[in-house]
Write a structure and sequence with these properties.
Layout: H1 17-26, H2 34-39, H3 64-70, E1 75-77, E2 81-87, E3 93-95, E4 98-100, H4 102-105, E5 107-114, E6 120-129, H5 130-142, E7 146-151, E8 157-158, E9 161-170, H6 173-184, H7 205-212, E10 217-219, E11 222-229, E12 234-235, E13 238-239, E14 247-256, E15 259-268, H8 273-282, E16 286-291, E17 297-298, E18 302-311, H9 312-324, E19 328-330
Antiparallel strand pairs: 1-2, 2-5, 3-4, 3-8, 5-6, 6-9, 7-9, 10-11, 11-14, 11-19, 12-13, 12-17, 14-15, 15-18, 16-18
Helix pairs in contact: 3-6, 5-6, 7-9, 8-9
Length: about 325
Amino acid sequence: MAGDRQQDDYPHAGAPRRRVLAAAALVPMLAGATAPARAMAGGTAGGKNGRLVKPVPTAVSGWEGVANALGRPGDMKRNLMYHTAFPRRDLLVRSHGVIVKPALALGSHVSFVRYADKSTMVMGDLVVTESELQPFIDALSEHGLGLTAIHKHLLSQSPDIWWVHVHAHGHHPVSMARGVRAALDRTSTPPPLMSAPPQPLDLDTATIDATLGVRGSIDDGIYKSVFVRRETVTDGRRVLPPGLGSTTAFNFQPLGGGHAAISGDCAMIAKEVQDVLAALRRAGAELVELHNHGLTDEPRLFFVHFWLVGNGVRIARALRPAVAATNVAPAG
């Protein structure tokens, strides 16, 4: 396996010193310090003269090796991201007394993107219990996968759950998929289930859509309103597909009578952060985390996770100022 590890540098040449230090600080956290740095590849793949490298469209059929390595099929997002979900249906998690459905806040996933230089990037957000966290991190290190963030999405949760962001780049996507699978094998992540047909939700989704300015979608009993950053977001010299690692998402879990529990996440640049935090608090949201998801993204993105319970339509109205405070557009 070691021969398949990626040989790219991370962070990219010319990166600001603060990012070099951030990457260096990450290394002692991972056993076998050199492998993750290679796998997390920065911008040296950008070609001559520092030109940006763009993602290229692919089809599900082109990811058969990755699907076999991950042990389950995926689907395409925007014809650019091969996406695979690993929902933690094995966990019974409560937050503020609410039983959290997997699609609300327990939805592990990874996405693979092919680039014009024939390289591949993988980015993911994976859910692990506290007892699984350290073995999971060790497996990432052993397989040359990078770690860019560890944080929580929920307050007052039982059991304790953590969210780990993974990142790698190189020319061996099947090897990277094997690394993801090896890390997941150190958790109790269950095998996939057949998707159930969408059921009507006890929410006024039409008014929520009109209020937020985006058409939502149903995912395993959760209503999701998603926005993407309007800017071109890059990781090193690679252009990220819209929505990869840069979404604002409001997930509504119906509680009956038009009420819902909302687990939300806003993607912000630095100058937007304080206005968004203030808007969320005015909406009555409890703030959970303020952090990064990546290490060398441009523009530099920050994320705030929050929790809110109440009437779905009133919450949508209250959240609208937080959306308006950021440079986002409805996800297509």
